[in-house]
Amino acid sequence: MSKEDEIKNIGENGKKKENEPLVKCPDCGDLLQKCLIQQNYAMVICPNEKCEYPFNQHEIADNLVYVDDNDILEVARLRLSKK
C-alpha cells in the first residue's frame, strides 16, 4: 500500500478504517490524526506539539484528504456518546 493510500485510510485516533494497523508519524512515531479544515477536507497531522509533521514536508498538499459525510457523522456520534 502506498503512503497516499495509507493516509486516505486513517480513521479516528490514527486507526485505519476496517480495523487495520495504526498509522504512525514518520518523524516522531505518534499516531497521526485527521484535522478537519473545511466541510469535507482534512489535513493529516501529527498531534505531538513538538513535531512539525507535515509542515516540514516539501509537498504538504499530499496530506490533504477528502472526508466523506458519513465519516464526519460517525466521529461526531462517537464523541457525543462519550459525554
Furnish the topology, listing elements before pairings.
Elements: H1 3-8, E1 15-16, E2 20-22, E3 33-38, E4 41-45, E5 64-66, H2 69-81
Antiparallel strand pairs: 1-2, 3-4, 4-5
Keywords:
single chain; 83 residues; alpha+beta; two-stranded antiparallel ribbon; 2 helices; 5 strands; 23% helix
| SSE pattern, N- to C-terminal | HEEEEEH
Q: Characterize the overall form.
A: globular
Overall pLDDT score: 78
Uncertain runs with pLDDT below 50, 5 residues or more?
A: none
Number of strands: 5
The chain-level structural class is alpha+beta
Distance between the termini: 36 Å
- Gyration radius, rounded: 13 Å
| Major sheet strand order | 3-4-5
Residues in helix, %: 10-25%
Count up the helices.
Answer: 2
Largest sheet: 3 strands, antiparallel
Q: What fraction of residues sit in β-strands?
A: 15-25%
Descriptive report:
Helices cover 23% and strands 23% of the residues. It has two helices and five strands, in the order αβββββα. The protein has helices spanning 3-8, 69-81; strands at residues 15-16, 20-22, 33-38, 41-45, 64-66. The longest helix is centred in the C-terminal third of the chain and has 13 residues, at 69-81. The chain is globular.
In short:
The chain is α+β, with helices and mostly antiparallel strands and 83 residues long. It has helices spanning 3-8, 69-81; strands at 15-16, 20-22, 33-38, 41-45, 64-66. It contains 2 helices and 5 strands.
